[in-house]
Amino acid sequence: MDFDELKRQLELAASNGTLLTPKHDPYNLGTAFSSYRTVLAYELADNLQNFISSGQYLVDEYENQLLPNSPLYFEITPKPESGFDIPASGVTACSIFATSVVDRI
Questions:
Q1: pTM
Q2: How far apart are CA 84 and CA 53, in angstroms?
Q3: How many domains are contained in the chain?
Q4: pLDDT tens digits for 26-38?
């Protein structure tokens, strides 16, 4: 998948309200989940559609070699000019507290 197609798919998911899942939504930080998760910063979550539309990010695509028919994984890294320096926090399993800084989506 090329960048433009991924961007279109992300914009569609953002407009449909399906891009940010509850597990990664900062407004659900107070809810414990059974596995490690990343949670977006409030600033990015509140401006996710604008961020995606801006195209101010780099994308790396990964494929699970152990499960070839599984969905692709995309790592999104904001460009410095995007204004989003630290877009996420890591949260350990069964915790409601962010424990690490993550600079990728």
A1: 0.79
A2: 14
A3: 1
A4: 999 999 999 999 9
